[in-house]
Amino acid sequence: MAAESERCTATAANPAVRALWSHPVSDVRLVDARRFEALSKAGIARVEDLILHYPFRYLDLSTAGAIREVPLGDDATVVGVVRDVRVKRPRQRLTITEVAIADDTGVVVGVWFNQPYIAQRIKVDDRVAMAGRLEMDFGLKQMKTPFLERLDAEDGPSQLGRILPVHRATEGVSPNWMRRLVLEALSLAGDVPDPLPAALRVRRQLPSLRHSLRAIHFPRALSEVDGARRRLAYGELFTLQLAMALRRHRVVGESPGHSHTVDGERMHGLLAALPFKLTSDQSSALAEVLADMGRPAPMNRMLLGDVGTGKTAVAACALAAVADSGTQAAMMAPTEVLAAQYAGKVGPLLDAIGVRWCLLTGSTSPTARRQHLRELADGSVTVAFGTHALIQDDVTYDHLTLAIVDEQHRFGVQQRLALRRKGEAADLLVMTATPIPRSLALTLYGDLDTSYLRERPGDRGPEHIRTRLVNATHRAAAYDVVRAAVAAGRQAYVVCALIDESDAAEARAATREAERLRTRVFPDLRVGLLTGKMRPAEKSAVMEAFRDGDVDVLVSTTVIEVGVDVPNATVMIVEDAERFGLAQLHQLRGRIGRGEHPGEFLVFADPRTEEGRQRMKAIASTSDGFALAEEDLRLRGEGELLGQRQSGLPRLRLASLVDDAELLEMAREDARTIVESDPHMELAEHALIAIEAHAMLGDDEAWVKSG
Fold this sequence. Notes:
This protein is α/β, with parallel strands linked by helices. The chain has 24 helices and 21 strands. The chain starts with a helix and ends with a helix. The strands form four sheets. A seven-stranded parallel beta sheet has the order 11-12-10-13-14-9-15, with helices on both faces. A six-stranded parallel beta sheet has the order 16-21-20-17-19-18, with helices on both faces. The chain has four domains: about 1-55 and about 180-195, no CATH class; about 55-165, CATH 2.40.50.140; about 265-455, 3-Layer(aba) Sandwich (Rossmann fold), CATH 3.40.50; about 460-620, Rossmann fold, CATH 3.40.50. The chain is globular.
């Protein structure tokens, strides 16, 4: 351990020890101009990128059996020489590629469907390894869609006692060459220092970085891979969580915040004015929010609620606490419809306790806007509801101490940061009605303290909304459900995936569908239309008409996905539901059954993939948004869920939020412990990992400092 500590100290004193990792990949031996271009196109531009280009599978050549001795039905690896390569086209749109390989004991044929490129990679007399399940078909031993790897001379008979790593190839660099180049990169990097503190590695029983890189790329036995992967995945997660912990400390630990009055007359008055009793989840979340607001350190909290669990009531109580403190609060929503809705719901509660508020959006008239700006600046208005209009340069606040950002994932980092900066170290409460798996929440928002809302108030339990998958042949029956609801005085939504036909031929465009329903299906009902392409004033007018009961059936795109609250709407039909993710479908379902009457959620879908069928089955089987979020993560993986990278999240090369949840919790605990003991990363053993954390975040200081 002493030697490791000395090495960390030496590295901290000279960060250039690891600078070689950032050198261009052309510095690696055997990378000529052609390979450099091919690697660069694949995103492998630096030595580090090549070192971190991990194998995606391994061929255990040490267990390669003679073809004759492999039992039928077993998964096995065989090594032999290619004797024949054929591509057959028995019918249109079907190609069958067959590669026959032989050893001294027999022949086995690999068969691939619609993969003719296999024949271009392999030629007769090549030595190959083939892995798959051995079957007998038409009197021949076969492997259907096996994995096939051409072996170079160094992978031949003298190497059959080892594990062969398989790295993803790129155009112009075969798996064999990729394996060689990775080996050269590791040799060039040498004895790379380990950024993880030695004491932490000992406590968590983690091998060194150097050993782990060698073991994952070129293991002597498959048993080495698991330990190496665990160490490298932990390193990724720990570095990210350390960055989160440092960001949290920068906001919470160092900034002088405002200590609010959290047990005041207005807060209790607002609680009394609520038309319902808080659920236990709401009470717990409110207690956590008020505890944060009562401390001098700035609050940095996320309120993560399932659909219909009552985030608004918790936020309203926080606004009342600000009023008791004699300061100001701003609540920013992503759309004018949602901002107006918050003003309409929370505003009367604030009126009841004598708190002045205003609504500021892009549609606010110039005269009203000038008045609102004047009153915010002189402090005569306590609460501002609005959109990004709240963060315009000419908007100033007398004393802003609480910033609430709703559906915060719909805002950019800079917009969230701008609202908080309108005050001096204002408390920040971000809210979302999009349930997020815990592992994903820790990855995206590891710097935030989190409060969860799962319990729905009143009688709106899981059975309050009935979900049905509807076959297209039963469309008339679905329309009868809409008619019955309207006849009973209720209202309905019909949701379409896209806006115009040009977006996709198969989608039922909302504009066309509204016209069809209006003229052919519901000529006796009042059918409205709402799309994201409408001007804000048009959207507001449509929503107001629907809310007032002047529209029976509202045809819409997913502009109604989040936050829209019309308690009288009890039926929703979703067209082309396979085009939506689970989270979207769950949000849409949350728009109905928000009052005393139960809801009917009718899903039209024709999923063409197994993943799509599982999604539809999941939405029909549970109304628990957090369970659906976990299922969505399992089905789609974090790659797609993090695809938009709205948070600026660094890439996780090896760690998996699905498989490594336990490692993630461990990494978070360790990172917070280190920051608590060494908040400025001044100890020598923390110097290199601090550099790694900041490098992972890049140069985006807003990412580091924002809430």
